[in-house]
Write a structure and sequence with these properties.
Blueprint lengths: L2 H14 L1 H39 L4 E8 L6 E2 L3 H8 L4 E9 L4 E5 L2 E5 L1 E4 L1 H6 L4 E4 L7 E4 L8 E2 L27 E10 L2 E15 L12 E3 L1 H11 L15 H5 L6 E6 L3 H12 L2 E5 H44 L1 H9 L4 H46 L15 H25 L4 H5 L4
Parallel strand pairs: 6-12, 8-11
Antiparallel strand pairs: 1-2, 1-13, 1-14, 3-6, 3-13, 4-5, 4-10, 5-9, 7-11, 8-12, 10-11
Helix pairs in contact: 1-10, 2-8, 2-10, 2-11, 8-10, 8-11, 10-11
Protein name: ABC transporter permease YtrF
InterPro entries: ABC3_permease_C, MacB_PCD, Macrolide_Exporter_MacB
Membrane topology: Multi-pass membrane protein
Length: about 450
């Protein structure tokens, strides 16, 4: 009997018992759908977490905290020598470094003022790393500055009453600066303690650029970038490293003395994601403390890999339960088709052919069930992702804080399901198929099995 004849024979026999075969396929489809939907929760939540991590940080970014000391615990601050070493490492695209003004700095424009974090940075390396402006240009002189995208939104009127914030936590429009910033003069106020008093110095600065809008809706950029020469002027006024504000009789702490001419933030940007791990490994060998989003993703992926394996295992139990129905269906098929088996054996059919016919039938049932279950699971996944956010909004009166993906079905998941289902159906049909090869011809012809 040729293979195509075997397939035709299987289809004809399945049509004879449509109800029983349909219920068996339905049970298999439900088991497959359960496995896929259950595991898709793990895939969906992993995708949400990874998306949240990668959107908050540049995936090619490596934070360098310092260099490990040999004679004591902790790390020393990074200096220009370290920067030069980092820039020579293979596959490094850029090395950004920032110094932070070590006191609260107040910026005033007309009758409006704001406190903001002030940095000194190397703009050449920042541009290499992807730094962009929404307006204006980069500074050229020591009295020129670049401000964050949200800087103007936090310039509040000095005459404003106590409650100046709206429900969203933003300064109300009537108390907020509404003019343009590019080309405007700001006054930076820095302080020092002298002769029992706090002495202030006002430094005029010109806004020449505004940074690009943050990618995250909830993120705010209120930083101010000043020139290195301006930081030196502030240090000469305060007499402390990076403008540190001290009590009159206090001395500069040892940790701040060690940070003189050092950088507060150093970030390395790799040429591509694949190079991040190799760069981190090289720096770790040189005893630098590093951290990148790749490290975080490793931990996240490991946790979710274990979770997904557990969910697939639980889902496989549903398919195993469905396999009982397949076993029962195939056993009944052998009993009912005993005369047919007897005739095939009488005309010289090979036992392997008879066995293959029943295995083909069980495979048919399993694969059809798996395909139906896959289609149904995609429908369920789409419905879940659409409905659950609406349910949460109705139940709690607000939307989810992050863009959660409750169910995600990558191509590998249906493939895993089909392979598991196919394997289970072959095992379920093996015993009945083997029994079919042992049917006695004479008894079969008398319909006695």
């Amino acid at each position: 009997m040729q293979l195509k004849d075997q397939f035709r024979f299987v289809r004809q026999n399945m049509k004879k018992n449509k109800t029983r075969v349909f219920m068996t396929i339905l049970a298999t489809a439900m088991g497959c759908a359960f496995l896929i939907v259950l595991a898709s929760v793990g895939f969906g939540l992993q995708k949400s977490v990874v998306k949240e991590i990668t959107e908050q940080r540049v995936i090619t970014q490596i934070d360098v905290h310092g260099k490990e000391l040999n004679d004591q615990d902790g790390f020393r601050p990074l200096n220009e020598t370290d920067i030069q070493l980092f820039e020579k490492v293979k596959d490094v695209k850029a090395v950004t470094r920032r110094k932070m003004l070590q006191q609260e700095s107040t910026y005033i424009i007309g009758n409006y003022q704001e406190s903001a974090q002030t940095y000194v940075t190397n703009f050449a390396s920042e541009v290499k790393a992807g730094f962009e402006l929404s307006e204006g240009r980069l500074p050229k002189g020591k009295d020129e500055i670049v401000v964050g995208y949200n800087f103007s939104l936090n310039l509040a009127s000095k005459d404003a009453p106590g409650d100046i914030y709206d429900k969203k936590g933003q300064i109300k429009a009537e108390y907020r600066y509404s003019g343009k910033l590019i080309g405007q003069k700001l006054e930076l106020t820095v302080r020092q303690n002298k002769d029992g008093k706090q002495v202030e110095k006002t430094i005029p600065l010109t806004v020449v650029g505004i940074t690009k809008k943050p990618t995250r809706e909830w993120a705010e950029d209120r930083t101010v970038f000043i020139a290195d020469e301006m930081l030196t002027e502030i240090e000469n006024f305060t007499g402390t490293p990076k403008g540190l504000l001290l009590d009159e009789n206090s001395e500069v702490p040892a940790e701040f003395k060690a940070q003189d001419n050092s950088y507060d933030e150093v970030k390395i940007y790799a040429k591509n994601m694949e190079a991040v791990q190799s760069i981190s490994d090289k720096l770790t060998e040189k005893k630098y403390g590093t951290y990148s989003v790749v490290n975080e993703l490793k931990e996240v992926n490991m946790v979710f890999m274990i979770a997904k394996a557990g969910l697939i295992f639980i889902g496989t139990i549903a398919i195993l339960i469905a396999s009982i129905g397949i076993y029962n269906t195939m056993t009944m098929a052998v009993t009912e088709r005993a005369p047919d088996i007897g005739i095939m054996k009488a005309i010289g059919a090979n036992p392997k052919t008879i066995k293959r016919i029943f295995l083909l039938e069980s495979s048919y049932i399993g694969l059809i069930g798996a395909l139906i279950g896959t289609v149904v699971s995609y429908g369920i996944s789409y419905t879940v992702n659409f409905a659950i956010p609406l349910i949460i909004k109705q139940a709690f009166g607000k939307e989810t804080q992050i863009d959660l993906i409750f169910s995600d079905i990558p191509l590998i998941l249906p493939l895993i399901c089909i392979v598991i289902c196919f394997g289970v159906t072959i095992i379920s049909g093996f015993r009945p198929a083997q029994r079919a090869t042992k049917v006695d011809v004479l008894k079969a012809m008398r319909r006695e099995v």
